[in-house]
Amino acid sequence: MYIKSLHIRQFRNYDKVDLIFDEKMNVFIGENAQGKTNAIEAIYVLALAKSHRTSKDKELIGWDEEFARLHGQVLRTSGSVELDVVISTKGKKVKLNGLEQRKLSEYVGAVNVVMFAPEDLNLVKGSPQLRRRFIDMELGQISPIYLHHLGLHNKVLQQRNFLLKDLQIGKGSKEMLDILTEQLVELAVQITKRRFVFLGQLQKWAEGIHRDISRGKEQLKIQYKPSVDVLEEMDLPKMKEVFFNTYESKKQREIARGVTLFGPQRDDLLFFVNDRDVQTYGSQGQQRTTALAVKLAEIELIHAEIGEYPILLLDDVLSELDDYRQSHLLHTIQQRVQTFVTTTSISGVNHEALNGAAIFQVDQGTITNDV
Q1: In terms of domains, do 69 and 92 share one?
Q2: pTM for the model
């Protein structure tokens, strides 16, 4: 698949931009704070209807404007797809081929993207929230039902947390807490089971890629770390039993804290290289190799799941990688994946993958194709 065209209106610092892309390599060049990342972000929002940089949609709307709109044409092996995202102060609307989609889970997945930005190099040593977000964004693209369950879970979780705060001060109903707990468990086990499967698949791809990057010297293992003591081999009824027992035994503790302390919203990922925890004991080089291997594994996993390669967004990441890792990344994607790169200069990137790339100059909210 590849994005053929993108039309941007009143998005971030762009007023009106119309772009036609190369189906292989596209490079946005410009000084810092000119809008390169905003251009990459526009593609990401078109695909996922949310930003990778902010959870506040209103920040995406141009200054003093009432709405932002993105329209793109994506070519897949099954045909052409038209995507529309309109973000206003009143909310957000998404359309596929002109038809409004009431649920985001029915929209996400029409085009698949993998984002690799400098903050993704913190996937290993960063916060658990960053790793959970990584799982949710990537798994949500290939599994609409996962995205649906996650959305429902977050709503029930919010209701349960409100009730726990009330119970903390002597208000609210413990009977209602039991009802919400039952609803939460039904969704939590579905999410947890799917995460186990996804990370097992990711492990298979990442292990070989990591071995190649480390020249056969290191072995990568990815381990899912649920906050509830469940195992991958458990069936759903057994998982439900463990979840129920956990919430029941920790009920008074959660009421005292006024928040749900266990569940998918508290889970984490662990990475091991040669059986040593990379976060704690790994060098910066090992941490970056692990992050790179995981990102490249995402590309292969999505291809295996949907039969097409996703679109790759590289936001100022080449300058963060040494020559060897940079070369490995570009060699892996060459001629297979439509790629968008942001950089202040390509003079330091000496790789044949950039030969014939479409070059776009970015300057103060304008983008021109440097033909």
Answers
A1: yes
A2: 0.89
